[in-house]
Specification:
This protein is of the alpha+beta class and 100 residues long. It has one domain (28-98): OB fold (Dihydrolipoamide Acetyltransferase, E2P) (Beta Barrel). It is 24% helix and 40% strand. The protein has one helix and five strands, in the order αβββββ. Strands 1-2-3-5-4 form a five-stranded mixed β-barrel. A hairpin with a 2-residue loop joins β4 and β5 (90-98). The radius of gyration is 18 Å and the shape is globular.
Amino acid sequence: MNKIVGIAAALTLGASLTLSTVTAQSASIGGEVKKIDEGAGKITLKHGPAKNLGMDEPMTMVYRVKDPAVLTQVKVGDKVTFEAEETAAGYTLTKIEKAK
């Protein structure tokens, strides 16, 4: 009986961790493109709060980009939604698209 309870608890914990990871990674942030530096693979975005990154206030920040090709999809002044993650190298933009 204890083995079954242990397995059920492990499965519940695993599902919970997976769900919170997916939720944290898929939190879109609204912003505006302020600068694009294709050579350095960076983008400057003025954006609202980014709760999944621990940012409670609006700010302007420089993000590294995971895929430099995304920098050709937007231009300075575009309103965008994006996703980012905190890595050992700093904040990295993982997805960006023009706001609808």
